[in-house]
Amino acid sequence: MDSAPKVVGIVAEYDPFHLGHKKQVLKAKQSADYVVCIISCAFSQRGSAHMFSTHTRAHMALASGADLVLGLPYSFGCAQANRFAMGGVSALNSLGVVTHLCFGVEEELLPVLGSATDAIKSKEYDKLFVESLSGGVSSAKAHGIALSQLINSEDSNSLNAPNFILGLCYIKALQDIKSDIVPLPISRRGDYHKGNDISAPSASIIRKKLLTGDTDFLKTALPPESYGIAIKAYNEGYYHKPQALDYALIAKILSSNSEELTNTPEISEGLEYRIMDCALSANSRDTLISLIKTKRYPYTRIDRALSHILVGLNNENCPDKPNYVRLLGFRNSAAPLLSAISKDMPLISRPARNKDLMMKEDMFSEQLWQIGAGECPKRAYEEQVVII
Questions:
Q1: pTM of the model as a whole
Q2: Which one, of 233, 205, 234, lies nearest residue 221 by Cα?
Q3: Does a structural domain hold residue 310?
Q4: Quick one: what percent of the chain has pLDDT higher than 70?
Q5: 100 and 25 in a common domain
Q6: Pair (303, 325) in one structural domain
Q7: Run of H or E including 153
Q8: Is residue 204 predicted with pLDDT exceeding 50?
Q9: Residue 113 φ/ψ, nearest 5 degrees
Q10: Is residue 228 classed as helix, strand or coil in its secondary structure?
Q11: Which of 310, 309, 324, 320 is nearest to 357 (CA)?
């Protein structure tokens, strides 16, 4: 490219790509030459398998305005907020072309984002966070408690709102790697997971409605471009069925020993024994999680841990930063951007030819997704880069 363009990066999931996502992309494109999205692949940040396939979601994003869509390796895409953020931010930074990072924050918390960012850099924050965790609360709640004391807020619950925590993690990741990427926070209305704003429903509400067969709701919640792609996949039955891998998961746990489970990310402090014991009384993933769940072991931690067991992820294969990203799709008009990307960050478009252990686990998670969609596992290797 002749001159350095403004390139806005977005870390997302798009399961599915809805009106709120469209708004963010359009806002980013108002002052950008290109928008680069990096998404979690087969499994979500919160732990469960995505409803729509990796390439279906990439196609929705491209059709709705994104210029380039990349995929995060499994161990970063399905991870706690700080690791998810570090994976996305460091990958975007390594591309060598991204100038800004756009992310949404709960509208009412946007004014305190700056003071909260300063707070999480202090040693006092680390101390308060660890103290809160030792009291048996979840990581998100520990964030809220520590922050509320440092920025003099009486509402610690609002400070553990998911997008606010992710926003802080993005900014902290940028600072930790000394990136020149400029953060661009934008306001986001409503509860991200409860979807209580019916005029802008969350992805989780959209999925729940769709699983009941409510395709009319899908049409009102998605932009026309992504709706056509999503409804085609749904009508063809090409989506992950929620209970499809439940028996395989329970069988995997029963065939594992405590040492193997202890070497799995997010499993420690005796959680491995609780998982093994509860698996004997569970006949589904949801039942298993409900049996394991306590104040000390919150739902999302367990959900991710169970996916890690199923995929076979271990602590030794969790580097601090991604050593590759997957090239999922791009617009023809973004060809100059592709050619300008640094060679320091490999873009993998043919995963079957890559022998990297992290890629092996990444693709096994994709095979599991295909099985859960009623497809042959080999389809994970047959998906083509989306070009529009």
A1: 0.94
A2: 205
A3: yes
A4: 95
A5: yes
A6: no
A7: none
A8: yes
A9: -60, -40
A10: helix
A11: 324
